[in-house]
Protein: NAD(P)H dehydrogenase (Quinone)
Organism: Actinoplanes regularis
Amino acid sequence: MTTIAVTGATGHLGRLVVEALISRGVEPGSIVAAVRSPEKAAGLLTRGVQVREADYDRPETLTAAFAGVDKLLLISSSTPGSRLAQHTAVIEAAKAAGVGFVAYTSVLRAATTPILLAADHKATEELLAASGLPHTFLRNGWYFENYTAQLPAVRATGAFLGSAGEGRIAGATRLDYAEAAAAALLATDVRPVYELGGDQPFTMAELAAEVSRQLGTEIGYNDVPAGQLVEILAGAGMPRGFAEILADTDVHVRESGALDDAGTDLRDLIGRPTTSLADAVADALKV
């Protein structure tokens, strides 16, 4: 029986990957939820999933967490500044534990994209390639949830805010990306790289129009210079470094189509069309 480990399994994406594996017929007992805080994984434990402590910042926990694991999904850390060191620890532990295959959640066109967000992903890909471990890079595009999470504030202010201009974004849902990860972990003929984006790229103005349609009230898109966007986000309490990363991403969406994608890798992996903008908005408004 193949044992599959998922790091960050109590996070938004990781939990969905575990569910996607189970829905595809994987026995819960052959899934390892590798998590920083096992006490937060009680729900997975009751499903029959193995729960093991795996703290990116405590490398001594990692080799034991990966013992007996055949395939590992390394979900990228969400801690800018520490991410590369954390990923290095995971890759070294996976190699030491004899893991047979690693899938890594990267970012769209990580090797060539100009966005600041990609630097750690590119470096991680290079580390994994140099490790000798069989691997695949799941280069996820933008998540619809990056925008739909803003809906309470957008309803209050009447507009989305950004610097993306008329740039197009091939967004998909976390569930889409989670199902792609599960499919890659279970496939027998995995490719080295998947560029994953949604079927129907949209502009921020089109997103605002769809939200307007579903709410029955006017929602706009206010496009501002990147420097102004940073000040607004930082003034609202966002860490300045993260605000700068978001503004930089928007600039490259506008100037080079950094989050647009015309490929079909995501649809092909999950075996269905990706979630539409309309459905993603409708699902978010139900919450």
User: Anything to note?
Assistant: DSSP finds 13 helices and nine strands in the chain.
